[in-house]
Amino acid sequence: MVAWPLYAEQKLNKVVLTHDMKLALPMDESEGGMVTTMEVEKRVRQLMEGDEGKVVREVVTARKEEAAMALSDGGSSRAALSKLAALW
């Protein structure tokens, strides 16, 4: 994923996705918030072929596995939902 914020809270989302969660690469914007075709090509190539892309793919794979565990029988999401249902 590449992060190219356009409106409202998307700038915060870009920071969270690129720096905190390491799930995306940031797009370098020119003045006015535009992104050149060369920048798009550069980031896509980094995602597909570069070390930065490898790191992003590894993080995404790890988060995918964590989500699957949370949703499985006995996982944290199912346990939390069961507790909520019991409270109701």
Number of domains: 1
Strand content: under 5%
Mean pLDDT: 92
For the record, the CATH architecture stands as: 3-Layer(aba) Sandwich
Shape: elongated
| Percentage of residues in helical conformation | 55-70%
| Low-pLDDT residue intervals, each spanning 5 or more residues | none
Give an overview of the whole structure.
The protein is mainly alpha-helical and 88 residues long. It has one domain: 3-Layer(aba) Sandwich (Rossmann fold). It is 65% helix and 5% strand. The chain has a two-stranded parallel ribbon. The termini are far apart.
Brief rundown of the structure:
By secondary structure, this protein is mainly α. The chain has helices at 10-20, 37-49, 51-71, 76-87, and strands at residues 2-3, 25-26. It is 65% helix and 5% strand.
Q: What order do the helices and strands come in, and which of them pair?
A:
Blueprint lengths: L1 E2 L6 H11 L4 E2 L10 H13 L1 H21 L4 H12 L1
Parallel strand pairs: 1-2
Helix pairs in contact: 2-3
Keywords:
elongated; mainly alpha; two-stranded parallel ribbon; 88 residues; Rossmann fold
